[in-house]
Amino acid sequence: MRRSRIRHAAAIVVAAGCLVLGACGAPVTSAPHQAASPAPGQVVTAFYGDSYTRGTGTSAPERRWSSIIAADRGWWEFNPSVDGLGFVNNRDRLAGSDDLVDRIVGLRPSPDVVIVTMGLNDAFSMPARADDIAAAIDADLDRFRDELPDARLIVVEPFWYSDERPEAIERIIAWVEEAAERVDADHIPGASRWLEGHPEWMAADGIHPDDEGHAEIARRMDEALGRLGL
């Protein structure tokens, strides 16, 4: 079983090149057709995530779940999410001004809402980097809370791509939830199972959700955000 999972994980990393940092193009940081800067009083929402939040697998950026959510709510979207990124995975390649946390806390005007969806890719570095991953989760959420004290911080359970669930993703899910509670962030549970049992919602690479998959994520996220009063 262990060898099977290792082979499976290796196949995922190379399939279509889309879990490898930068293999699928640059982030589309703004929702299509939105103004270059937010209007006075418009809610600014930043998304911190990987390929599932960047929208890899969709036919157009406006079909990704983050842009659907932002458009429905009239939010101004800032989404620098990058393929293959994790709390630690490929983080060293985005050092300095390209680090997503740096970009989000440095955004002007400052975000009113920060939605964190990170963690999927870190499962491929478990258990070897378990301590680093747990520490990075804490460090990132601490920065958002300390440097954006007025922002609504929403931490989403990491997404997952298949019905097979290794222990690694379960541990990361637990760490993310614990860290969210510690910094008094809102937490949205269950997201790792939103696509479970529906391979027809996946793109041709079998890894990323397609337009229908993103529509389902948007539907679930809309319900969850509604319960939080957003």
Automatic annotation (TrEMBL):
SGNH hydrolase-type esterase domain span: 47-215
Hydrolase is among the record's keywords: yes
Pfam family, one: Lipase_GDSL_2
Top-rank lineage group of the source organism: Bacteria
Signal peptide start and end residues: 1-25
Keyword Transmembrane helix recorded: no
GO molecular function: hydrolase activity
Keywords recorded for this protein, A-Z: Hydrolase, Signal
InterPro entries, per the entry: Ester_Hydrolysis_Enzymes, SGNH_hydro, SGNH_hydro_sf
Cross-referenced PANTHER family: SGNH HYDROLASE-TYPE ESTERASE DOMAIN-CONTAINING PROTEIN (PTHR30383:SF29), THIOESTERASE 1/PROTEASE 1/LYSOPHOSPHOLIPASE L1 (PTHR30383)
Protein name per Swiss-Prot or TrEMBL: SGNH/GDSL hydrolase family protein
